[in-house]
């Protein structure tokens, strides 16, 4: 924080309220008070990715018991092999456009191996594999935005 600016606490509280009222995931502000005196604030909240539900119209001739027996959709975030995003940002599956992806479905990865990149605030953050395993699913597309905690890859 800055050199005893009492208004900074009220300012940060106001930013948090603004974040909540406008349903934002994060907000970043810089205040310059003079030479060697500034306040840089980043207020963020944890967003939990809700499973997407798709409504599908049943055919008119479909029997009711068959529809009742349909299995619920799985939530990839609940998969024990899910690797989730540690931040809000943009996902890149390769180091640069046109180059080969870091991993593909079916690849065997080692612990610490780069799975993909999440760009946040102009910084490229390599996302390492938390354990060794086989990539069974890639849940994001190259260049797609992601929220904190969103599932990216499933390791088997």
TrEMBL record:
One of its GO terms (cellular component) is acetyl-CoA carboxylase complex. Residues 63-82 have a biased composition (Low complexity). Residues 63-84 are annotated as: Disordered. Keywords: Biotin, Fatty acid biosynthesis, Fatty acid metabolism, Lipid biosynthesis, Lipid metabolism. The keyword Lipid metabolism applies. It holds the Pfam family Biotin_lipoyl. Pathway: Lipid metabolism; fatty acid biosynthesis. GO terms for biological process: fatty acid biosynthetic process. It comes from the Bacteria. This protein is a component of the acetyl coenzyme A carboxylase complex; first, biotin carboxylase catalyzes the carboxylation of the carrier protein and then the transcarboxylase transfers the carboxyl group to form malonyl-CoA. This is Biotin carboxyl carrier protein of acetyl-CoA carboxylase. GO terms for molecular function: acetyl-CoA carboxylase activity. It comes from Jannaschia donghaensis.
């Amino acid at each position: 924080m800055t050199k005893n600016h009492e208004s900074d606490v009220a300012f940060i509280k106001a930013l948090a309220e603004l974040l909540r009222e406008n349903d934002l995931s994060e907000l970043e502000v810089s205040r310059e008070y003079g030479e060697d005196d500034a306040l840089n604030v980043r207020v963020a909240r944890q967003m939990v990715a809700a499973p997407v539900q798709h409504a599908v119209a049943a055919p008119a001739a479909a029997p009711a018991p068959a529809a009742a027996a349909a299995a619920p959709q799985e939530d990839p975030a609940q998969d024990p092999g899910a690797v989730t995003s540690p931040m809000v940002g943009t996902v890149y599956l390769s180091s640069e456009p046109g180059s080969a992806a870091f991993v593909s479905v079916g690849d065997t990865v080692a612990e610490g191996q780069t799975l993909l990149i999440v760009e946040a605030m102009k910084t490229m953050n390599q996302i390492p594999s938390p354990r060794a395993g086989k990539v069974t699913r890639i849940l994001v597309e190259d260049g797609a935005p992601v929220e904190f905690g969103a599932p990216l890859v499933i390791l088997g």
